[in-house]
Specification:
The chain has 396 residues and is of the alpha+beta class. It has 3 domains: 90 residues, ATP-grasp fold, A domain (Dna Ligase, domain 1, 2-Layer Sandwich); 127 residues, ATP-grasp fold, B domain (D-amino Acid Aminotransferase, Chain A, domain 1); 147 residues, 3-Layer(aba) Sandwich (Rossmann fold). It is 35% helix and 25% strand. The strands form 5 sheets. Strands 8, 9, 10, 11, 12 and 13 form a 6-stranded antiparallel β-sheet that branches. Strands 1-7-2-4 form a 4-stranded antiparallel β-sheet. It has a 4-stranded parallel β-sheet with strand order 15-17-18-19, sandwiched between helices. Helix 11 links the parallel strand 17 and strand 18. Helix 5 crosses helix 6. InterPro entries: ATP-grasp, ATP-grasp_succ-CoA_synth-type, ATP_grasp_subdomain_1, Succ-CoA_synthase_bsu_CS, SUCC_ACL_C, Succ_CoA_ligase-like_bsu, Succinyl-CoA_synth-like. This is Succinate--CoA ligase [ADP-forming] subunit beta. Belongs to the succinate/malate CoA ligase beta subunit family.
């Protein structure tokens, strides 16, 4: 689960991290009062969407010459004008795709005098099985570009879960940044704070880009991106309350109600598969034969008829879907249950596009019998290769 920047900063502030004062608004009429709560004279007006690259993004409605989704303002009048310009319009960034995201919230924040921009993130380093700091002196940039062009400028510090951030760990991170004086003192306090927040709130990612050194030498969290491990949200009602479903795909929200692993994609062949690995292989082979998957959908090993029916309805709700491939290997999952669910869903929602079904495993013959005797226009496939070729041909 992702949250907005302003929410992430409030979470980090609760642990003692240094963040600027700011006010979140949802209407341009709130901009003036929000700005008056801040000291000024420099303000930053930030679009709040679940995507990076906001500063370099462009608003669809404002033309190619429009400013991006993060803007400086030197007067309250400029704050108001920017709010009127940004709210309700669609911001397109490198991470949103061409569709962009509508800006429904802004964060008006006190400006900062910046001396240096640094990069910091916390994530689970699976190569060592520990939470690790990933730090670089190249803040304010895409970390992927830094990793590609100058990997030597990225330092990874894995943290022993038994000790947390030790003084030696904090010193190593401070050395990687080249921090001195009061900035170093701030860093030695900040790094354990960020680790504590990451662990206690079961975060999957905590990214501060940039972490700034101000002209007075102090550190400040200038931007913050936080996502949470969805499997741990049951023990964090306070974090669940921060969820903004307007930022999520409606189909993904519906899928979550049935405990379905669903991710919307940009293709036109809908996929329903059991098992994440098999789902990935199914998407790969669709691409191999020249088309693109419309989604990732894993119904899981213990799906029942209701879950399969829900999955099918979610796929068919996507107007981009021109064909559907159901690929089931029945181990724990029984092929007859899948077949019953598919038949029920097709009869319920109607079938307007080609449907290819490949079944293998437990009760496969019974499953095929159910499909064959349904009287529906369902194409059977012998194996995954055959299924992929058939659905791609049907869509083309």
């Amino acid at each position: 689960m992702n949250i907005h920047e302003y929410q992430a900063k409030q979470v980090l502030k609760g642990f003692g991290a240094p963040v600027a004062s700011g006010v979140a608004i949802t209407a341009a009429s709130e901009a003036e009062a929000a700005a008056k709560q801040l000291p000024g004279p420099l303000y930053v007006v930030k679009s709040q969407i679940h995507a990076g690259g906001r500063g370099k993004g462009k608003f669809k409605e404002l033309g190619a010459d429009a400013k991006g989704g993060v803007r400086l303002a030197r007067t309250i009048e400029e704050v108001v004008a920017n709010a009127q310009d940004m709210l309700g319009n669609t911001l397109v960034t490198a991470q949103t795709g061409d569709a962009g995201k509508q800006v429904n919230r802004l964060y008006i924040e006190d400006g900062a005098d910046i001396d240096k921009e640094l990069y910091l993130s916390l994530l689970v380093d699976r190569s060592v099985g520990r939470v690790a700091f990933v730090v670089s002196t190249e803040g304010g940039m895409d970390i992927e570009a830094v990793a590609h062009d100058t990997p030597e400028k990225i330092v990874t510090v894995a943290i022993d879960p038994a000790t947390g951030v030790t003084p030696a760990d904090a010193e190593q991170i401070a050395d990687a940044y080249g921090l001195t004086g009061i900035g170093r003192e701030d860093g030695l306090k900040l790094f354990p704070i960020l680790y504590k927040a990451f662990v206690e709130k079961d975060m999957a990612l905590l990214e501060v880009n940039p972490l700034i050194v101000m002209t007075d030498g102090r550190l400040r969290v200038l931007d913050a991106k936080v996502s949470f491990d969805g499997n741990a949200l049951f023990r964090h009602d306070d974090m669940k309350a921060l969820r903004d479903i307007s930022e999520e795909d409606a189909k993904e929200i519906e899928a979550s109600k049935y405990d379905l692993a669903y991710v919307a994609l940009d293709g036109d062949i809908g996929c329903m598969v059991n098992g994440a690995g098999l789902a990935m292989a199914t998407m790969d082979i669709i691409k191999l034969y020249g088309k693109e998957p419309a989604n990732f959908l894993d119904v899981g090993g213990g799906a029942n008829k209701e879950k399969v029916t829900a999955a099918f309805k979610i796929i068919t709700a996507d107007p981009n879907v021109k064909g559907i491939l159901v690929n089931i290997f029945g181990g724990i999952m029984r092929c007859d249950v899948i077949a019953e669910g598919v038949v029920a869903a097709v009869r319920d929602v109607g079938l307007q596009v080609p449907l290819v079904v490949r079944l293998e495993g437990t009760n496969v013959e019974l499953g095929k019998k159910i499909l064959n005797e349904s009287g529906l226009a369902i194409t059977a496939a012998d194996d995954l290769d055959d299924a992929a070729q058939k659905i791609v041909a049907a869509v083309k």
